[in-house]
Amino acid sequence: MADEEKKEDHRREEYIANRLAGLFYTPAAKLANFMKNVLSEDNMRSLHTFLGDADMMFLLCQNTTGDNYSFNSDIPAPSAFKKKGVLLIRSERGEEITEQNLEQTLLFMEFSKNSLQHMSRILQDVYLPVLNNPNNQQGWSDLVSKDLMDKYHNFLGFIYVTIGLVQGRTLLPLPPSDATTSTRTTSKDKAHILEGSIITWTKQIKNVLKQDPETALKQGSNPGPLVELEFWQNKAENLNSIHEQLQSDKIKKVTKFLDQNKSTYTVPFSKLQKEVQAARTEANSNYKYLQTLEKWFLDLMDENKDLVELPELFIPVMHIILLIWNHSEYYNKPARLVVLIREICNALIVQACKFISGHDIFALIQDDAAGEACNKLGLTLDVCSKFKEAYFDYKSKANNTWTITTNALFVRLDAFTERCQDIQHLTKTIVQFGKLAKIEIGGTKGKTLTTSVAQIYKEFEDAVEKFRSVGYDIMDISEKRFDDDFYEFRCSIKELERRLGSVLTQGFDDSDTIYGRFKLLDSFEGLLNRPIIQDELEKKHIILLESYKQDLKIVQSIFMEGKVLIDKRDERAPVYKNLPPVAGALKWTRSLMERIKEPMEKLSTFNKAILDREEYKDVQKLYASLMKGIADYEKKKVEEWFDEVDSSSDEKLKQPLLDRSEEEMLHVNFDPALVRLLREVKYFSLLGEDIPEKGQDIYSHAERYRTQVGQLDMIVDTYNNIKATLHPVEEPLVRNRIQKMDETLKKGFDELKWENANIRAFIDDSMSV
Hints:
The chain is mainly α. The chain has 30 helices and 6 strands.
């Protein structure tokens, strides 16, 4: 039984292999090698699967490389076809293929890359002669014969047209040659057949002439600018092809015959030919000019190009468009410009969505990087704005010939920017509310209010998470569900803002100092600009203004009282004890200015409704008056000190090094005014104030003066100690020594001044004595 099955399989295999050899036109010399390749182990496995599976309808045998053949149950795409294949087809699903029914059940069909051309050739060269043969029409009536051949010719024409459509061309099917040359066909019938061809050609040509670049935009496919180039290229090539066909001898014979027979179709068709010529000229011209933009459009749509690099392309693109507008005979119509600009806008939107997609935004939010998403959306909006700016710049250069409504050009780009603004609002909201996670409110109600803030933040995170769960790309402007989802999110946020405003109000009332209130507002920085919270805090802002106004008056009173004490050098003057008078006064005035300056800066950030109130204007005037008064006082103190330095510093340095009191005691004659000057210069430098040139010069020798004064103090102390403790009985014993000391120190009383350069030698001599 098994042997019988093997023999049957072998006979089926031989039959199939022989049929394939014939279909692949295998020469006798290569037949053995062909049979070996076709009947290989892998091929037989595939073949047995096909023969054994009654539901498997076909199997493809294809010449892969050289003399190698393979079986495949999947038909590859036409582009993958390199050589001819043969399709083994089961005539009926579920039918078992046996040795007995092999010839009836298994069909073979040649299969190639150009299957339509192959089919057309068989129909033309094989079946048509067979059907036209009178011997094969015996027993047919003239009506049946005519009807069959008409339908067959129509089918041939349909295949010919389809081949052209596949190639992107319009092929005009010619009338059957036998119908026009046959002596059995009357002139009237011939004219009827040819008029049918004219009607078909007219429909085909009008379809091409009706093609418009705006069609793709109307269909909602959102094409890029390269599609505009491809459209005019294809239309130009198609019309050139039609023109060549219309100029062919065969079509000229058709029109000539109809003209001779006074057909009514010849005049309209002649007009149509002129329309083809005009449209062909326009298409070729438009494509020629648009080719100058190809390089820039390729850069604009380059997937590897960063969005922020695109603005550098806008000016060249708009400049070339303006040149085309000025020089092209056909591409200078508003309708053409609308299509091109809208397609450029589509390319911008595609690039922007690659730069920051909805998935990217949600990923950044998940990673607590909503600020980065906000910045990227800002860059996207900036790029879109720059393109519109470039357009309007060149519109002005076009001498008002670009009479196009903005909405017609930027309808989709504006919708996209609006979507970006909505999503940017979302990310800003996340950034602002993110600060609530770390806020701690002080005061007697601090714990309760902090708990309320934590609850608000948790509900905010839930609202964000719900929005993140939408199942679409939020950057896709065709997705209309976004509007409803975003509206729901904003409603949730508004409710949270109202509750947050209530928390802020309670915290404000709980704080009893202006600085505590400002600190509370600083904690919620960013959120304070949200309209609902601003409305909640508006009354509190008035209270804050009044508190600040009272503080300004207190500072003004402190200033007026303090400056009087400073000018009198009263010990109660508000100057730090370790600071010199002028620098101390400046430090005090700076502290007053800092006290009032920071609150005023914060007040100036309040909303416009507060800034327009009379209360704020009164505070502003008082602040400006007080700041001017303090600044003027500072200027006066500095100028007085400058005058003092210039007038007295030289005089003080010309004083002798030493001086003797009435009790014959020595002291170092370094004027206290110089000591004060050096201290003033030091602290002026720390305060960042200007220092007079004379003061800088003296301060540059400060270390030298300090060393000299110290050493002279040691000498004077030693001398005074000897004079004070010497007993009259001992005086004769050391008289010579004292006289020598007096002679050595005499230069310090008479000759040497603080500005002299040889003080060092004097000190050394005095120390040695």
